TrEMBL record:
<protein>
    <submittedName>
        <fullName>ABC transporter substrate-binding protein</fullName>
    </submittedName>
</protein>
<dbReference type="InterPro" id="IPR006059">
    <property type="entry name" value="SBP"/>
</dbReference>
<dbReference type="Pfam" id="PF01547">
    <property type="entry name" value="SBP_bac_1"/>
</dbReference>
């Protein structure tokens, strides 16, 4: 069973955000090209934009999934079929291909290597887990990042961020390719053969695809985590949106619901998704990026058991080689 969303923001899981407060401090414009991004990250590292007199600024940071790569590959024309199938897109001949064979892939890796060698990317990015990254974000140490929304920076710093556009690459490519189809995730729910009441189980999970179940899944408990406004809309209470312990939104609502992280059997609607993707900056980012998302977005490929066994046997070595 799939996770389904009826609007764009949740389908762009990794949105490009930049610290506008730091840009203003250094009198820099929002980057529009990959070269301008490089120069901006260099300024973030060298010119103390947070003003504390320490060289503690991180040009870009994230966890070990390294979403910077997904966010930038479109600037080299790669990933033009969306983000659900690793290293797969549509080649110039109109056929599905493994895009790491494109010479532009090497150019992208060289750009990433340049950022890393010059210390413009968090040195811990390839090993750190999400909590380590979030700890840096909520301390105001991060210049650019690719979360679903800047709410990961917590109430003290989330409003400092605005979206980057789809950056133009060295050859003029202009694409933001990390986008999921409407069925953002598949295979989110299964029933084992030991289940004695499959009909009741299906009725239970079907509840989360309706309006009432969607609201419960996304918002939690009325009066405890959210309130209903006079116009019928819903709003998180301060215990979630302005958590007194400094938790970001995902951390706060994660104490009540399993939705943070996604990949669950549910319908996500804009009305009841008062989460990170409803943050004004996340909505603005999706709107800014929309003209540059792929025209064709492929769903996750489905394989036979034999094909999956073969893929499992080969993918480890292939992934190690191309990354």
């Amino acid at each position: 069973m799939p996770q389904i969303t009826d609007y764009l923001a949740p389908r762009i899981g990794a949105k490009p955000f930049i610290n506008k407060k730091w840009l203003d401090q250094l009198k820099l414009p929002i980057p529009a090209t990959t070269e301008e991004l490089y120069q901006t990250l260099k300024a973030f590292k060298e010119k103390d934009p947070n003003g504390n007199g320490k060289a503690d600024e991180l040009g870009w940071s994230g966890d070990k999934t390294f979403l910077l790569f997904d966010g930038l590959r479109g600037a080299w024309g790669l990933g033009n079929a969306g983000g659900k199938n690793a290293s797969i897109d549509i080649g110039p001949d109109g056929k599905i291909r493994f895009y790491t064979i494109d010479p532009k892939y090497k150019d992208l890796l060289e750009y990433m290597n340049r950022l890393y060698k010059e210390g413009l990317i968090d040195k811990e990015v390839f090993t750190q887990e999400t909590p380590q990254f979030l700890a840096k974000a909520v301390e105001g140490m991060v210049g650019t990042m690719h979360p679903s929304s800047p709410s990961v920076a917590g109430p003290s710093y989330q409003d400092d961020y605005v979206s980057l556009p789809a950056l133009k690459g060295p050859d003029g490519d202009h694409l933001y390719s990390q986008v999921s189809p409407l069925t953002a995730s598949t295979g989110t729910f299964a029933i084992t053969k030991a289940n004695k009441h499959p009909e009741a189980t299906i009725r239970w999970v079907d509840y989360f695809y309706g309006e009432e179940g969607s609201k419960f899944f996304r918002m939690g408990i009325e009066g405890e985590t959210y309130e209903t406004l006079p116009d019928g809309n819903v709003k998180y209470l301060d215990v979630i949106s302005k958590n007194p312990k400094g938790l970001n939104l995902d951390q706060a609502i994660g104490q009540y619901s399993p939705w943070p992280g996604g990949g669950l059997p549910q319908l996500i609607t804009e009305k009841y998704n008062q989460t990170g993707n409803s943050h004004p900056a996340a909505i603005a980012s999706a709107k800014l990026l929309e003209p540059d998302i792929p025209k064709v977005i492929l769903p996750s490929f489905m394989f036979t058991n034999e094909e999956q066994d073969r893929l499992n046997a080969l993918s480890g070595d292939i992934t190690k080689y191309v990354t």
